[in-house]
Amino acid sequence: xxxxxxxxxxxxxxxxxxxxxxxxxxxxxxxxxxxxxxxxxxxxxxxxxxxxxxxxxxxxxxxxxxxxxxxxxxxxxxxxxxxxxxxxxxxxxxxxxxxxxxxxxxxxxxxxxxxxxxxxxxxxxxxxxxxxxxxxxxxxxxxxxxxxxxxxxxxxxxxxxxxxxxxxxxxxxxxxxxxxxxxxxxxxxxxxxxxxxxxxxxxxxxxxxxxxxxxxxxxxxxxxxxxxxxxxxxxxxxxxxxxxxxxxxxxxxxxxxxxxxxxxxxxxxxxxxxxxxxxxxxxxxxxxxxxxxxxxxxxxxxxxxxxxxxxxxxxxxxxxxxxxxxxxxxxxxxxxxxxxxxxxxxx
Length: 347
Hints:
The protein is an all-alpha fold and 347 residues long. Helices cover 76% and strands 0% of the residues. Keywords: Cell membrane, Membrane, Transmembrane, Transmembrane helix.
């Protein structure tokens, strides 16, 4: 099933691309209409597809006893989440010192965010925090009928995006951070991956390349119409549901692209490290006072995104078995005494 790795590769590249676009914007790189259209279309694909694919193979962990789940998958997610907080603090503080347009960039503000991260996840690491919450939620709901879970989680997603977020307002959502402010929308995709695994795999595996291309093209048209439409109740929810489908169709079309599939097998190291590399490159542009114009400006976000991916893969290559992506020996020794056995990272 090459489309599985392709789908994961697509979702992580979309995440890297939007961050590359945002951070290069601070150094005067204006996104082209193509990049704006690309990132705009990806809004409904990035995280829904990411959580759907995460749920697709989460069932084996939900089926094991609580002890095995906590000592295995959850211990690894918590370790990586906490370990990379200082890295995120470092690049955020560096960006505040070197890049224009940074808000709340004082040392104290960043320290507070880092210390509060277990209860207020921020930046891209909120995804790992949300996965911990979703695994626990899925385990607690193990005995509940699938249709009840899907209806309730869909209602949660719809209610959060269409009612709660507008009611909270921009200032409150900013106070909550990207994790608390968004994660309720994505539980339905994680649970759909678990509960509808057989149906999803069977359906996508039957789609031919031609049918996938036709379906993806149709999705592009429909998504563009939804983007251009006025705000209607549940608009974002509809865009995200269709976005997950569009992402799967894109995976069918691109499943024979080996670099994309390779990326899909190593999403964790790229996910946690890419913004660090993106920010370093943006700071280098600012430090060298580079004036990027014309075709170079149009290519810069793409270039930064690809380089960040390659650096993340390179980091994994040289540190795959290190504490960066695995529970270290001292943690494993400590955790065994408390029945919290670390799990080795497998993409």
